[in-house]
Every structure is written in structure tokens, then in C-alpha cells.
Here is the input.
Amino acid sequence: MKALDDAARSELAAMARSIVDANRYLTLSSADASGLPWISPVYFAPAGHRRYLWASSPGSRHSRNIAARPEVAIVVYDSTVAVGRGQAVYAAATAGPVPDDELEDAARVYSARLAAEAYEFGVDDLRAPASLRLYEARVVQHSVLIRGGDPEYGSELDRREPVDLGR
Here is the structure.
């Protein structure tokens, strides 16, 4: 395995930030109280690189799972690239509804990304009795996959490499 120097880590972090910034969907992995896993694609907006926002029904399976067990795993990737060219950002996070005192700012961030889709959510669209809530995932660790055969960073086996995306 090739050791990564600061320049390589910086390059991998920049690549990871660009993936998060360029993609509109993340894959959210949650589990219910008994540990049964569930995966859901959700349209998201990054609020920096350590907080991801999405709107969802509190009754959806992933929302119910988060209520029971807030620890989630996330992957953001571009599914349109050719085979062997894929890159992804993985994240371990804690998720839940956005607190009421942060809802106005978070709704503004989420709606700013939706503006490209000609849609906007106001605070009243995201709190009871409305059918949707704004959720957040607060990332505790990011990583990227380095393929075993990668000519620059590779080794014999694929491995996950932690990266710091900053705030």
C-alpha cells in the first residue's frame, strides 16, 4: 500500500468535495430498531461538506428508521460515468429532523439548490401539519475508495481512505 502524503490527501479531499457539489442525490442507508437495513435515494443539498439536507415524510421507512436509530451511512456518486471510472464519497453520519431553531436557514439552503428545478420549500412546507419535514445528516467521517489497481494510490486490494472535506 502506498502511503499518502499531504498533497495526495488534499487532492483526494478536493475530488470528494467536487463529487458532493456536483451531484443531486445521495444514497442513504438506515436501519430500524432491530438492525434491519434500508437504502433510499434522496435529493439533497449540502450545507457545507459536513451537513446534508433533504425533505422527507416522517412516515417514510428511512425517516422512521432514523427516529429509532439515528446513525446512518451515505454514499454520493455519479452513476452516469463509464464502468471503471466511478468515484464516490462515503460518509458516516448522525441524522434527524432539522431543529426548529435552525429550520429557516436550512430551508433556505435546501431551496437554493431546488431553485434550479424551479421549486422552493418554505418553512411552513417543512413543519407540522405539512406532510414533509427537513432532515439533516451531520457527517462524522468522510472517506473515498481507492481501487487496488490505482496507478497513483493503489495497492493490491481496494481500500477506503479517510478524507477531510472541511466545513
Q: What stands out?
A: The chain is about 25% helix and 35% strand. The chain has a mean pLDDT of 90. The longest strand covers residues 133-146.
